[in-house]
Design a protein that fits this description.
129 residues, mainly beta, Metal Binding Protein, Guanine Nucleotide Exchange Factor, Chain A, 3-stranded antiparallel β-sheet, 0% helix, 45% strand
């Protein structure tokens, strides 16, 4: 097994809630109006210190998408997913973008996100309408 190379971010950033590995700069947040099974999810143009899983087709609120799950390189925790392809023309802007599930990361101030007790739709995403 090779040596682990981890990028350290400067400024305000999101990190893995399990091992505190840096994941994304808060300034790189494109949208905070997405949703996942645990509540809020944020869309990013770029993130660091993740590995990707297998490609799969997932039906979400906004249609069918090809996605890969993303995992923290520090501890292997699932932290979100990456949109590889969108099958609806109106959703093409998501291609190549990343979702971090707010429940699975620490906020820029080191805070945890507490999931609401309301029923959530599994594997969902939201429109930026």
């Amino acid at each position: 097994m090779g040596r682990l190379f981890v990028i350290t971010l400067e400024g305000s950033f999101y990190s893995c809630k399990h091992c505190r590995t840096h994941l994304a700069l808060s300034d790189d947040t494109l949208s905070k109006s997405f949703h996942c099974r645990h509540g809020k999810a944020y869309l990013f143009d770029k993130i660091v210190n993740v590995t990707v899983g297998e490609k799969e087709e997932r039906t979400m609120i906004t249609g069918l998408h090809t996605v890969v799950d993303i995992f923290c390189v520090g501890c292997g925790s699932l932290v979100g997913w990456k949109y590889e392809a969108a099958h609806e023309k109106s959703q093409k802007y998501k291609e190549g973008k990343f979702i971090l599930e707010r429940f699975k990361v620490l906020g820029p101030d080191g805070s945890y996100y507490v999931s609401s007790q309301e029923a959530q739709v599994v594997g969902s995403d939201a429109d930026d309408a």
